[in-house]
Design goal:
Arginase, Chain A, alpha/beta, 12 helices, eight-stranded parallel sheet, about 10% strand
Amino acid sequence: MTRKAAFIYSDELSTFVLPDSHPMKPIRLQYVYELLRDYGIFDLPEAALVEPRPVTDDEVLRFHKPEYLEYVKHVRTGDIPAFGFGPGDNPVSDGLYGAMAISAGGSVVAAELLAAGGFDRAFSILGGLHHAMPGHASGFCVFNDPVLAIQELLARGMKVAYVDIDCHHGDGVQYAFYDTDAVLNISVHESGSFLFPGTGFVNETGTGKGTGYSVNLPLYMYTGDEVYLWAFREVVPPLLEAFAPDVVVTQLGIDSHHRDPITHLGLTIQGFSEAVSDLADTAPKWLALGGGGYDVYAVARAWTAAYAIMLDTQLPDAIPDAYTERHGVTTLWDHDDLSEFAPHQKDARQYAEKSILELQREVFPVHGLRSG
């Protein structure tokens, strides 16, 4: 069945300037838009290109502290760093608030569109900044737009599940909902033993009413498509089916890609797309967000493939000539030799098996699922 899917996008965030040494390249968002446009996706009747709006103060304050919001609104280059800002991951930049307000606003707009009933699916590649905490920036993230979008959906009476497939653990979202059963929060990521933020272990299952509603599936370095998809399918679809949400919010970071310069998983665009397709099969309504991804053309190809999946549309492997002429990218799918990852797959499988067995023992019974 063809579903109407909104794509929330603005060039404003693509032009935001970070230091040249910073891994996050906002131009990657423009590259996604251009590839979708060149494929002719926005000519489809079920596709809708939607402008975001800046997030409001009231929306930000659903999660973030007032003093933090005021700092972000007024800080300029050269000001005294505070609240997690400074050299490194979270630099102070002119125009910071405007860019981050659009980023978060795009995710809230996506939530509003789904709640209003005009769309079954919405994708805001501007968002997915899942590390931000109530009172400080973290991991390139200033406003935690997944939390703000989820809170908008909850306020409208919708039952929400959140699935995060970014290579990094979604620690800020986990923090927001750790003590409640209102949101099922699943994160599939490279283990915190190897990667920032050093959290997201299987035993982080929630507290109080939230016990069993924070679900973490940490994976070994170099995990490739086969092991990743097996592990994903052992955990994510059964839990979503048992929870039966009205809407699934997904963070679709593609820093899990084998070419990503700052992480260590070994996915291809094909493997990522299979996981996204599985999510499509479990989502009555579906709000997708961007996230990590530091190889800009892996980002462009992966999120183009993801939006096509949202539209139930097949794209040819050959990238349109106009895009290839500008960027030198020729295929949507990966055709790389990944033999260097093969020796690690036995360890990856054993690591995933251990994680899954522990989840099945500790979390599955909470949701009426059999362990083991």
